[in-house]
Amino acid sequence: MAKLSLEDVLKLARLARIDLTEDELDEFTGEFDAILGYIEKLQSVDVSGLEPTIQISGQTNVMRTDEIADYGYTPADLLKGVPSVQDDQIKVRRMVG
After folding, report:
1. Residue 19: φ, ψ to 5°
2. For the chain, percent of residues with pLDDT exceeding 70
3. In the prediction, which pLDDT does 38 show?
4. CB hemisphere CA count around 7 (13 angstroms)
5. Which of 8, 39, 41, 69 lies 20 to 30 Å (CA to CA) from residue 91?
6. Distance (Å, rounded) from C-alpha 4 to C-alpha 26?
7. DSSP character for 85?
8. Per the structure, how many domains does the chain have?
9. Per-residue pLDDT, 72
């Protein structure tokens, strides 16, 4: 089983820009060792006869067709009550500085 040293955990902490105390170093070293143990267990599982699973519902290409709905209004009708219009679009003040 792969074991991480304190130096490995310190390097990971530096890369993540995390300051760890001595107690946290010991704690994380143990947790990382446990995680690596689980990964080694997963790598030992025989999956040679299995197909990759993309989704489990059985549905394929569930989409509706795009249809233009005519509600009887023109863009000009919809923009009549707007305080400020520019190039057939609602003009607003800049919100982000």
Report:
1. -90, 125
2. 97
3. 92
4. 0
5. 69
6. 11
7. E
8. 1
9. 92
Identity of residue 89: Q
Assigned token pair, 12: 């990971």
Beta strands in the chain (DSSP E): 85-86, 89-90
Residue 30 lies in a domain: yes
Residue carrying structure tokens 């105390």: 21
Is 33 within the bounds of a domain? yes
- With respect to residue 93, please indicate whether it lies within any of the assigned structural domains: no
pLDDT one-digit tens code per residue, 44-90? 999 899 888 888 888 888 788 889 889 999 888 999 989 999 998 99
| Domain hosting residue 31, numbered range | 6-43
11 vs 82: CA distance, rounded Å? 58
What are the structure tokens assigned to 51, written together?
Answer: 């197909």
Residue 12 is classified by DSSP as: H
Reply yes or no on whether the pLDDT at 1 is more than 70: no
